[in-house]
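User: Modeling request: complex.
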Amino acid sequence: MIEVEGLTKYYGLHPAIQDLTFRAETGEIVGFLGPNGAGKTTTMRILTGYMPPTSGTARVAGFDVLEESLEVRKRVGYLPETVPLYPEMTVVEYLEFMGSLRRVPELETRIEEVLERVDMLERAESYIGSLSKGLRQRVGLGQALLHDPEVLILDEPTIGLDPAQIIEVRNLIQDLGADHTVMLSTHILSEAQQVCDRVMIINRGRIVAEDTPANLQAQLAGAEQILVRAAAEARDLVPLLRAVNGVVEVKPTEHEGEVEVRSAPGQDVRPLVARAVVEADLDLLELRSAGLSLEEVFLQLTREDAGTEARAEG
Amino acid sequence: MRNIWIIAGRELRRYFVSPVAYAVAAMLYLILGVIFFINIYFGLQTGQINPDGRMVMGPMVTILLFVAPALTMRLIADEARMGTLELLLTAPVRDWELVVGKWLGVFGFMVGVIAVTWIYPLILHRMTNPGIDQGVLITAYLGLVLLVGSMLAVGVFVSSLFDNPMAAFFTTLAILLGLWVISGLGSGAGTASEIIRYLGIVDHYYDYLYRGIINLPDVVYFLSLTSLALFLGTQAVESRRWR
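Assistant: Request completed. Predicted assembly structure:
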């Protein structure tokens, strides 16, 4: 469980994150979505006990990150953005080192379990320096899982992986999400959409939106939008479609015979619109959804002044 | 406490697979070997071998001036550069345990390297009659170990300040050289000169310990310097969290 309240961190005079408040429950996968420099890494570093916040409180697994840092660190598994590995060690040596620092009981058995989970059993004796980027990522993930932490914090866990590996890692995360609290950061929207139970969009150090991926999409798009084109004058279409149940607004576009129809959130009016056009004895030429994707929502939310932003992560 | 041993143990193992450590040890043994050989060779020519087990220790102190920065430069700086410091600082390890563990690792390695040089006094002991004074030898070695411990602690501290091992190397070298020559400034009388003389690192070795006398102020000096450097190193690691 992660409880964050009013968390703020300044680097000098520059605020990296400002007044963040959120919770993440056990068994929940929370995604932290935002452009580079939005404050994702800073937040994660505070939650893992790496750096103290300037103000505000954060409790991880019931312990305060500032006052009970060691207790927090015992209960958190962390995969930083640059996977921290020692190239001159073998995979097993590395896990033995980290496992002994973390007092993992029955370490040898546990290492085997973890290696199996991240599918690295065959490469257990390989030197980390000789592993590919994807395999290194798995070793890093193995390190984060080693002590079976209550909370897993993963900073861009799929960055630099090939598509097949991305799917593997996502499956693994979903698997872990069942009985852990997982918090991951990403700037890939589809990833947040697929993996997370809940998404927080962070921009310039502030949470600008928070909800399930589906709700976020629906809510932030305001309403569903569809485009209708028929062999008719737009001005004839407008009153016709306005009468359709669930339609909020109809307005002509710059194209001949095309109108934009907005409906109430979560309501699919396409069948009714199609029927209305056909029943009015008009030829329906095109009907398509123009609803904003999460991608557009994201861009819309994070676009403002993005250019003037200083780097907050680092 | 266990964390210190785990970190020290890992560091120690790392030296045994590191080419730098082997190069450093090889250089040390080569130079000492040549010096020892020349001493014995001329001793046999004149028929008079100087029964002093410390003939390799004087040069060794000079070599250690370079060895200490070379062995300590990457201890923390490299972890910072590679991003692995983030791993250690988010593991349930206290900052001081990390710093002391790192120091203990390199200290253990150097004690091992120095222990091997005991072979020269052993040879000398068998060649001469009635042999060499073991008390002086042991005290001189004890002093050397204290000296090395404090030099390495300075190196660990400096390494914790940098993300670049080379910067750490030259800074450590500069500090050790400074401590080496500073006593030359304190040649006059008065409290200031006395303080300056007290700061000089090698005098604390040569004045008594090297001569076989355990002089408490010198022992205190080395132990204080070691503790101070490790304390400052801990502060430096902690301050990284605030950056």
